[in-house]
Structure formats: C-alpha cells, structure tokens
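Dear colleagues,

As part of the handover before I leave the project, I'm documenting each prediction I ran so the next person doesn't have to rerun anything. This entry is a single chain, and its sequence is reproduced below.
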Amino acid sequence: MKKTKISIVIPVYQPDSKVFEMQREMLKKQTLKAEIVINENLPQAISFNKGIKKAKGDIIITLAQDCVPETRNWLKKLVYPLLKDKNVVAAVSDLILPEWYWKKYPFMTRMTTMKDIGKRRPNMDARACAFRKKDLIKARMFNENPNVVAIDQYLYNNLKNIGKIVHPNVSVFHLHPLTNMKKLKLDYKYAKEIGRTLLNLKFDDSRLWIRIIRAVPILGILAILPVFPFKKYGYYFPAYVLFSPIQHIMYLAGFWKGFLMGDKN
C-alpha cells in the first residue's frame, strides 16, 4: 500500500468512559497506523474543522467519540478506495447498533430506536468517514453555523459535486448513550433541520420523500410503521404503537418550526 499519512480526528465532549476506552483500544489494534487528533469541549463542527486544520495527514478520518471500529482492518479497508481511485472523495463506514447495547436504553427509547438495531448505511456520516484533506478544504469542511444539526448533510452535498462517495463495507459500532428525553430532543432537532433546509435539498433522494411524508399529521405515523422489524420483535408491536405517536409529535413540531422559521431558528 502506498505510503500515505493518515490522521484520525475525534471531537470529545463528556464521553462515556467505557465506550471511549473501547474505541482507544481498537484504534491501537488497527493494522494501519495513524495520527490521533483529539479536540475537547467544542461544538462538533468546530472541533472537526480545528482538528482537520491541525492534522498532518493527507487523508483525514472523522470519528465520533462513541464509535468503535468493528475489526482490526477497519482503517486499512476504509482508506483503500481513496488510495486506489483519485475520483473517490469520501469513504463511508456502516453503523452498527448492537442488540446488547440497545437493551441498555430505557424502554420507550428502545421502542423508538428499534429500526436502528443492526447495521445501517448512511449516504454519508461524519461519525466514521475517510476523506482527502484537500477535498475537505475544497468542500469548505463542516458548517459551523450553530443552527445546523446535520453537519454531515452539508458536507455530503458539497463533496458529491466534487467526486465519488463510496461504501467499502466496513463498520463501526455506534454506542451512543440515550435517555428518553435525549432521544426526543434529538428527534425534534433533526426534524427541525430537515424542515429548515428542505427547499435547499434535491428531491431525487427517496429518504427525503419519506421525511416529508412523516411531516404530515397522522399520515406520518403510517410512514414509520413499515420499518418495524415484525419478524424478530413482533411481540413489541403494541408498545411500539403506543410510543410512536409521541415520536411523531416531536417530529411534527420540529419539522414545521424549521420549515416556517427557516434561518431565523
């Protein structure tokens, strides 16, 4: 493999000590070595940008404090597309919510995060991605506007106009601690961001249409029912039906406030 400097940028803010230790241990075991750049107690976008500027690597890995590489070869496989193809601008890890960690959540949070159990593939996610430093600079890095929640969406929109974004079939365990209140606040914040930026997004994304349908009162509940894992967790369905309207109300409140207020939020 071509000799290339690699830096891993990790924003840190009140991390779960056990999860953070798991992450550090797995980074030590990686078959490919990298510089670790840690920034503490800053907003995530600012922390990422500060770390990117400070990093010595030609390739930058953005890694959330609650993401643990699945294997020892995670880093090697993640950066490989960037080394192989000059047209690739980002390599994206899949995210895994293990069932054993999901069971640690409060009951209502378990019901509203049931669709996330197992592996999921985001278009792009700041939690565990690889980029060339020069491409990040060209894409203006992460949006530091404090009103912006989905900072990876802005970067994704800019990067996809520069080159290819690929998924090299590597994963991280996403061990994000949640309480009932924290989960509802996240639902509200992300919905508000979707509503606020709706007019700036393209309608060729099927996920966007689903998000819009979810913003329709009552109909929005029906949009989240198909994702319920009946085969494995059918016995939880009555509880899911009980708690899903609460999640729907938070989504409605956030989406329409974001849409109607725009950048005034």
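The chain has twelve helices and ten strands. Residues 139 and 192 are 24 Å apart (CA to CA).

All the best with the project,
I.
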